[in-house]
DNA sequence: TCTCCAATCGAAAGCGCTTTACATGTGTAA
DNA sequence: TTACACATGTAAAGCGCTTTCGATTGGAGA
């Protein structure tokens, strides 16, 4: 391995000067040039561990994924958020460290992150206990789509999303509107349901108990089951607002299996705007979450925290706007 | 920060002994116990940079994602593969480092990985130049779904996959079978097309030029366009084998838009078995790739390389089996 | 009691870098 | 010519850990 000593010798300067030259500290042009030449010639690559040890700065951000459904990185929503996060963070030369997590979101994970010396932590898990937050530790942290005591959370404007969905349905003549809720232990699920009820009330529409069904963790199976319950009702809704696209797609499918037409008999509005939403039949009208922007905002907040380290009053929460994407799954009632 | 010195002092031993105790080297039971107690009491966490510096082992594996379509981590196929990889790697206490890649898959990326001192590299990119492979460097590397000169690649058995698809179609009475190919600069795209032709020949069926259309990078748009070309033919195929599920779903959609019935008028077989394959209408018959297993195999190969460092003859290539998943998109011809 | 050996522990060097505090050299003003 | 300020470079310490090799100790055997 070629070290700073080799460069120093080759260039005829001390290692201190080499270090300065490489870190853009004050050295003469001549020295800098000679050193850079040597670096080039010897194919020198600085050792990040040594640098981290000396500076106490790792240029790594720890990523903690929840275990929801055990899919981790492959989660359709979170992976896009992280992609947005990464795009921003790498502009500032941070790498992302995905740590082992057979330990869960607990003390062990935090200890491991501490061990790794990450400069910041981004937590991507929508439910479960917030053990790390409780530790009130020293590492700057940002949360995505999850409530927390600590400042630094980014999430979609779920309330407005629900409102957009309900209003769109109402504008199309629907009054018998059901809601397939997301898991009621998740922040998003709770907020969307809350938004649904609020929007219905604002429209002067009743929120019927039997039109409120829990679809669980946003899965196909959950959406299917929830829809079956709705279909089994004597007085079926004419439209259903579903708290997640995956559930919505499953719901549409089972509706068709029951011999009903979508959207003529039952209309659907989803939430997320996953890639396939526009490719199913009928194309799904949905509330789009800007995953990339969520990730980017989280990165901005975290980098700010890292750079100011509590000196300034940090951003508390950041709500990212959502939008209604009209496609073909909503029918206009006569 | 509490260091090994604090532990040493607290426990009444030297730092050397502390280090040994923590690394399960030979120390007396008594010493070990006292040291462990001190660790507990002072909330000591070892510093990985220091350890890495001293041992030249980072316990990190670098992950290089391709930029195909700019989706990176959120790629529906690769993210699942990486998830499988991670599950295995973390059993052995490795963390995954996703490095910045505004640099692409070139020398710069490799330099950065070297800088980080990762113990191994997993390359997840299906096409483009293999700059890193060319460098014939020292860091153990494994490739996923991509040909390489270096030993250490994992990929699905694309040839057999194509054969399964074609045979299934033939068994259902189809003879006019088209193929929407994946991008012909990707390994998978090439192999699947090759397998298609081979299987057709084996069945004694002609491979008609106009039944072979390129869908590009496995995207919705590509699948749609390719299908339109097929639909525009005077003599349409009765079945099409599509090299990717996303393209297949787009193809089915446009077929229905053209007023044809799926699968009665045209049958479809996809490739991948993405999550939504079974939730579209009709549910897509497809060739399943075992993404988790691919990732796991890659991890096994890489860890083996890391641990043997060229001393043994390493595994060259590893082909992961695929399977036919029968659903509702194939119609039996009378 | 003395010798010898095995078990146990510790001093110190070293991993590759940054940074402080000081030494040297150069040019400028008096 | 002398004094001084500034620019430039360096020695050395330190970041937190591992590991080698020698020192110390205690017990077994004679």
Automatic annotation (TrEMBL), chains A, B:
The keyword Hydrolase does not apply. Keywords: DNA-binding, Repressor, Transcription, Transcription regulation. InterPro entries: HTH_LacI, LacI/GalR-like_sensor, Lambda_DNA-bd_dom_sf, Peripla_BP_I. Gene3D superfamilies: 3.40.50.2300, lambda repressor-like DNA-binding domains. GO terms for molecular function: DNA-binding transcription factor activity; transcription cis-regulatory region binding. Residues 2-55 form the HTH lacI-type domain. The keyword Secreted does not apply. This is Transcriptional regulator, LacI family. The lineage of its organism: Bacteria, Bacillati, Bacillota, Bacilli, Lactobacillales.
């Amino acid at each position: 391995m070629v070290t700073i000593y080799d460069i120093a010798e080759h260039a005829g300067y001390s290692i201190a000067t080499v270090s300065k030259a490489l870190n853009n500290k004050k050295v003469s042009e001549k020295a800098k040039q000679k050193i850079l030449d040597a670096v080039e010639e010897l194919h020198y690559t600085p050792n990040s561990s040594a640098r981290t040890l000396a500076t106490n700065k790792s240029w790594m951000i720890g990523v903690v994924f929840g275990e929801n459904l055990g899919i981790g990185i492959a989660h359709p929503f979170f992976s896009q958020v992280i992609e947005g996060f990464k795009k921003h963070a790498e502009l500032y030369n941070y790498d992302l460290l995905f740590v082992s997590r057979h330990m869960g979101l607990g003390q062990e994970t935090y200890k491991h992150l501490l061990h790794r010396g990450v400069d910041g932590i981004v937590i991507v898990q929508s439910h479960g206990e917030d053990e790390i937050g409780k530790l009130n530790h020293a590492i700057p942290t940002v949360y995505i789509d999850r409530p927390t005591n600590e400042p630094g959370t980014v999430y979609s404007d779920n309330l407005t999303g629900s409102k957009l969905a309900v209003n769109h349905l109402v504008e199309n003549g629907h009054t018998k509107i059901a809601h397939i809720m997301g898991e009621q232990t998740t922040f998003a699920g709770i907020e969307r349901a809350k938004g649904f009820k609020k929007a219905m009330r604002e429209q002067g529409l009743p929120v019927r108990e039997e039109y409120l069904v829990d679809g669980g963790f946003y899965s196909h199976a959950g959406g299917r089951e929830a829809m079956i319950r709705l279909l089994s009702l004597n007085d079926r809704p004419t439209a259903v607002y579903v708290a997640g696209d995956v559930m919505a797609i499953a719901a549409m499918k089972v509706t068709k299996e029951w011999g009903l037409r979508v959207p003529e008999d039952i209309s659907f509005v989803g939430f997320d705007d996953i890639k396939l939403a526009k490719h199913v039949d009928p194309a799904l009208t949905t509330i789009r979450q800007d995953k990339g922007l969520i990730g980017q905002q989280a990165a901005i907040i975290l980098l700010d925290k890292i750079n100011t380290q509590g000196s300034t009053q940090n951003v508390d929460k950041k709500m990212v706007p959502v939008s209604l994407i009209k496609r073909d799954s909503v029918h206009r009632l006569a």
